[in-house]
Amino acid sequence: MSKIIILTGAGISAESGIETFRAETGLWAQHRVEDVATPEGFLRDPQLVVDFYNARRAQAAEAQPNAAHKALARLEAEHRGDVLVVTQNVDDLHERGGTQNLIHMHGALNSALCGRCDHRWPAPLQMAVGNACPACDAPAARPDIVWFGEMPYQMERIFTALGQADIFAAIGTSGNVYPAAGFVAEAAGAGAQTLEINLEPSAVGSQFDKALLGPATQTVTAWVEDILNSN
Ligand code: OAD
């Protein structure tokens, strides 16, 4: 019974209408990373940062999970071995598509984090600068997003799973951001078969055993069908 670990990135949500980061007209062409995705940017201009994530949260709330999200939920439900999805995405389309064994390694738009005491609570659709923390009352609410320079969540659990994986698949991620871009080397080193599913080869594409190129709604659905047929 094979253990499957799947890393997802913005590409899996693209066909749900959520912009990716590094496309020519993507989010990082419209906003400076250092302004909206670093602790220093938040200190400098918290309103700009809160507005940026309020817009992302509103966009995610209107989007629906697509066939690729749903196929991964089906894989988890029907595969006889373990399936773990590790997502870099901060939208909630995996969970709304039915995936349960899920790690949001870069945080989540629907969560707020206290900058003072680390308490987490459900974020309102529109956060405001200086919202009070329900646990310690400090006016220190921030989006629960892992910014550049911060440590992604649950790394120990992820590296343990990578070390035990039989199959590692990366879906819709450009391979530019570490530590996620290093997962393929970690899994391959531990003996996993590796597969990249993307529109085009990523920055670390040459490190995978195989590639499945095309839009995620088609490729992921076909891949899941194959795995379940070989179960
Ligand atoms: P990117 O925007 O860097 O890459 C998106 C990837 O998805 C690209 O490799 C595209 O080829 C692919 N893609 C686009 N549409 C697709 C489709 N329909 N089907 C399959 N693949 C498709 O996004 P990420 O790799 O997720 O971090 O970015 C990683 C991190 O960088 C993000 O989590 C974010 C960002 O800065 C933080 O904000 C902390």
Descriptive overview:
The protein is an alpha/beta fold. The chain has a six-stranded parallel sheet with strand order 3-2-1-7-8-9, sandwiched between helices. It has a three-stranded antiparallel sheet with strand order 5-4-6, covered by helices on one side. Helix 6 packs parallel to helix 10 (216-229) and helix 8 crosses helix 9. The protein contains ten helices and nine strands. It has helices at residues 11-14, 27-30, 33-36, 39-44, 46-62, 67-78, 93-97, 155-164, 183-189, 216-229; strands at 4-8, 83-87, 102-104, 107-114, 120-122, 141-145, 167-171, 193-198, 210-213. Helix content is 36%, strand content 19%. It folds into two domains: 1-18 and 65-106 and 152-231, TPP-binding domain (Rossmann fold, 3-Layer(aba) Sandwich); 20-62 and 110-145, SIR2/SIRT2 'Small Domain' (2-Layer Sandwich), CATH 3.30.1600. Bound molecules: 2'-O-acetyl adenosine-5-diphosphoribose. 2'-O-acetyl adenosine-5-diphosphoribose (OAD) binds next to helix 1.
Topology:
Blueprint: E1 4-8, H1 11-14, H2 27-30, H3 33-36, H4 39-44, H5 46-62, H6 67-78, E2 83-87, H7 93-97, E3 102-104, E4 107-114, E5 120-122, E6 141-145, H8 155-164, E7 167-171, H9 183-189, E8 193-198, E9 210-213, H10 216-229
Parallel strand pairs: 1-2, 1-7, 2-3, 7-8, 8-9
Antiparallel strand pairs: 4-5, 4-6
Helix pairs in contact: 6-10, 8-9
Bound molecules: 2'-O-acetyl adenosine-5-diphosphoribose.
2'-O-acetyl adenosine-5-diphosphoribose is lined by residues 9-11, 14-15, 20-22, 26, 37, 88, 106, 146, 172-174, 176-177, 198-200, 202, 215-216.
